[in-house]
Amino acid sequence: MTIPGFPIYRPRRLRQSPALRRLVAETHLNVDQLILPLFARFGKGVRRPIEAMPGVFQLSPDEVVREAARAQAAGVPAILLFGVPDRKDARASGAYAKNGIVQQTVRLLKKELPPLLVITDVCLCEYMEHGHCGIVSSGKILNDPSLKLLARTAASHAEAGADIVAPSDMMDGRVAAIRAALDENGFTDTPIMSYAAKFASAFYGPFREAAESAPKFGDRRSYQMDAANANEVLREVALDIREGADIVMVKPALAYLDLIHRVKTEFGYPTAAYSVSAEHAMIKAAGARGWIDERAVTLESLLAMRRAGADILITYAATDVAKWLK
């Protein structure tokens, strides 16, 4: 490509007005790309603030519906639902209980807000007494026995009415196990949005409070990905696609923009970026102190994810972003 030099070529010509800048913008933010994460817990009229995540709450099912309705009214098309149970055990029985917190909330959401896309996080950590994402024996997280519980959980979410199930556990083979369980139970049309490249990240800190899911021993580095590895991401994503994932995700987002780009370029699949709890908390904290413009930094961050290749943006600021975009 040959580009003429100054003064023939003046890039500033196309920056002279907002209308011109919009006309030639290469990347766009749109409300249709947004997903709002919400945390459900048992009760009624419950709005328990999460200290480390300003503006985010643990909500009873009725309050989840109220929060989701506000997001939907602003234009947000989808929510990602997490459950916070009252009791935990060694088999994560609350994760797949017919009247579990996620199952109850999904049924209410589909009754009250039928057009809203309800995506459910499929994991065991919130429901396990030890806080890990699989069955534990002698201090070791067991992969294959955990797959049955994950598949059972996903099927129970679909039965309750979930539009999409999203496994976040990072057990090997879980997408295939979930796809098989969905198909066997008549949910062949239920898509899987896989947390295909989920890293063992320090950026999850505030989420531990939100989901009450901190592990009681050790850490999650034996199953979540090492931040040093990029080529491994392509192998992980390829495996999940081969096993039946319909949408793939990179989590966290901002520190992994290079990998969002590589995943989208390599596979061309619908690709989600999860702007995680610490990304939200840092922006909110700095904005509250007047150190940054919260709105401008949030929008610029999400634009960077889109520019890297993300088609879908999961963000705790989704409702605000939808209003700003209008």
Describe this structure in words.
By secondary structure, the chain is α/β, with parallel strands linked by helices. It has a single domain, classed as TIM Barrel. Helices cover 39% and strands 17% of the residues. The protein has helices at residues 18-24, 61-74, 101-112, 144-160, 174-184, 205-211, 231-243, 257-267, 277-288, 294-308, 318-325, and strands at residues 34-41, 47-49, 57-59, 78-84, 117-122, 135-137, 140-142, 164-167, 193-198, 247-251, 271-275, 312-315. The strands form two sheets. Strands 1, 2, 3, 4, 5, 8, 9, 10, 11 and 12 form a ten-stranded mixed beta sheet that branches. A two-stranded antiparallel ribbon has the order 6-7. Strand 4, helix 3 and strand 5 (117-122) form a beta-alpha-beta unit. Helix 8 (257-267) packs parallel to helix 10 (294-308) and helix 9 (277-288) packs antiparallel against helix 10 (294-308). The longest helix is centred in the middle third of the chain and has 17 residues, at 144-160. The protein is globular, with a radius of gyration of 20 Å.
Short description:
With 326 residues, the protein is α/β, with parallel strands linked by helices. The chain has a single domain (28-325), classed as Aldolase class I (TIM Barrel, Alpha-Beta Barrel), CATH 3.20.20.70.
